[in-house]
Amino acid sequence: MDYKYRNVLALAYVGDCVYEIYIRKFLFLKGLEKVNDLQKEAVNYVSAKGQAKYLREMLNSQFLTDEELELVHRARNHKSHSSPKNTNVATYHDATGLEALIGYLSLSGNEKRVEEIMNFIIGG
User: Fold this and answer.
1) Per DSSP, which regions of the chain are E strands?
2) What Cα–Cα distance (Å) separates residue 9 from each residue in 14, 29, 34, 57?
3) What is the rounded (10 degree) CA torsion for 101, 106, 110, 111?
4) Catalytic annotation, residues
5) Among 1, 30, 47, 80, which one is least packed by beta carbons within 10 Å?
6) From the CB of residue 74, how many other CB atoms can be counted at a distance below 10 Å?
7) pTM for the structure as a whole
8) Which residue stretches of 47-88 are H helix?
9) Residue range 8-15: average pLDDT?
10) Could you tell me if 42 and 24 are in contact, meaning their C-beta atoms sit under 8 angstroms apart?
11) What is the pLDDT of residues 54-103, one digit of tens each?
């Protein structure tokens, strides 16, 4: 099934889960074991601000393929009916773009590319 043109917010919903699992595993394997420490460190990665920062770094370094860029732009431009809680709209849209991309890649079975993106983010 081609997930490219599915609802980008639904893709972002899935991508958010995949992304958070990668980050939680990374932090645990890094040696953090106290839940409070894990949560404090995870916020740097999983917050909209953190996700937007990593997306911008990928965009600036031309890390994404044309197909990935198309999906990210579609997700960033999607009109949301909810307003972001702790950030501005542009940051929220960037974070949604990253989440949608990860959701799309994961649902499409492209775990290798998800891994490459997550390694870019965590510096692996």
Assistant:
1) none
2) 9, 30, 32, 22
3) 110
4) 16
5) 1
6) 15
7) 0.92
8) 48-60, 66-77
9) 96
10) yes
11) 999 999 999 999 999 999 999 999 876 666 677 899 999 999 999 999 99
